[in-house]
Amino acid sequence: MAAETSKIDGIVDRIAQSIDGGILPVGTRLRSLRAAAVEYRASKNTIVEAYDRLVARGYIEPRHGAGFYVTALRKKPADPVTERLAEAVDIASLLREQLEQSFSVRLGDGRPPAEWVEGSVLKSHLRNIASGQRSLFEHAYESPIGFGPLRETLSRMLAERSIGAHPDQFLLTLGANHAFDLIIRQYLRKGDAVLVDSPGYYPLFAKLKLADTKIIGIRRDASGPNPEDLAQKARESGARLFFTQSLAHNPTGGSLHLGRAHEILRVAEMLDLTIVEDDAFGDLMPATAPRLAALDQLRRVIYVGTFAKILSASLRVGYVAASPDVIAHLVTMKMLTIVNSSGYVERIVHAVLSDGHYRHHLKRLTRRVQEARLAAVKMLRGTHLRTEIEEAEGYYLWVALPEGMDDIELTRTAARESIFLAPGSVFEADANRSPQRHLRLNIAYVSDPRFHDFARREIHKAAR
Question: Could you tell me which residue ranges the HTH gntR-type domain spans (predicted)?
Answer without folding.
Answer: 5-73
